[in-house]
Amino acid sequence: MKFKKVLVAEDTDSSNIGLVYKLKEIGIETVESSQSCDNAILKLKKGIHEKRYFDLLISDLSFVSNTPNPKITTGEALIEEVKRLQPTIKIIAFSVNNQQTVIKHLINEIDIDSYVCKGLNGTKELLKAIELIQEDEKYLCPISSATLHQKNVFQLDDYEKQLLQLVARGLKQDEIAVYFQSKGISPNSRRSVEDRLSRLRDNFNASTTSQLIYLAQSLDLI
Q1: Contact at 8 Å (CB) between 196 and 163?
Q2: Residue 139 has pLDDT above 90, yes or no
Q3: 43, 73, 60: which is closest to 102 by C-alpha?
Q4: Please, where are the H alpha helices in 57-153?
């Protein structure tokens, strides 16, 4: 299934314009945008009434309302209402919000198709999500996937923070062990450094140490 009609719900002008441009660039015929949740619902209802359904909703989660007494004020509430009105529509949440409770609620309970975090690779990840969702697959960007599977959400002890900071600076495991020994920091053997990095990769669902560092930095943990 190739998406032909997409609704973008995004209240920031620059993001809205950029998304619409990118979607048209990849060949989507009709792209409509809305800067408020209520307006997005009106567009969706119009499409349903005219039997010209939207294939995909891309929605931010945070909205600043410019109208008095809005009925729907958050992207989460918008997504839930869209699901109620048109259960078969594909949905991507595209947000800076990387809270585990939010991601878990939207993925596991509301059953959206993708959660992509905005940021350095946000647009690239969004386009990847669109490609996979067209093939009836679901997709979590690396940050949202790590957050969803993280065993100890947003918790690194001082040792782990320092360890990851040293790795980010380019130090090898042997060098980190020597540094810890010189500073009287324990545990400080090469094996203990290796084991702790392995545990952190598991906690963050990271396949490599480089990915672990990227995720920790993206989540503002180091």
Answers
A1: yes
A2: yes
A3: 60
A4: 75-85, 100-104, 122-133, 142-149
Collapsing DSSP to helix, strand or coil, 214 comes out as helix
Distances (CA, A) of 52 to 165, 176, 211: 52, 60, 42
108 compared with 65, residue with greater pLDDT: 108
The correct answer on CATH 3.40.50.2300 for the domain covering 5-149 is: yes
**Domain limits, the chain:** 5-149, 158-218
What average pLDDT does the chain have? 90
Burial 41-75 (b: 16+ CB within 10 A, else e): bebbeebeeeeeebbbbbbbbebeeeeeeeebeeb
152 — pLDDT class (breaks 50, 70, 90) = low
User: Residue ranges of the alpha helices (H) in 26-109?
Assistant: 37-49, 75-85, 100-104
One-character DSSP codes across 147-183 = HHH-SSTT---HHHHHHHHHHHTT--HHHHHHHHHHH
Contact between 82 and 41 under an 8 Å Cβ cutoff? The reply is yes
Radius of gyration of the chain (CA): 21
What the block records as the tokens of 47 is: 């499409």
Assign domain 158-218 to its CATH architecture. Orthogonal Bundle (1.10)
pTM for this entry: 0.71
For residues 54 and 18, is the Cβ–Cβ distance under 8 A? no
Do the Cβ atoms of 4 and 28 come closer than 8 Å? yes
Cβ-based burial of 88 (10 A; exposed 0-12, middle 13-18, buried ≥19): exposed
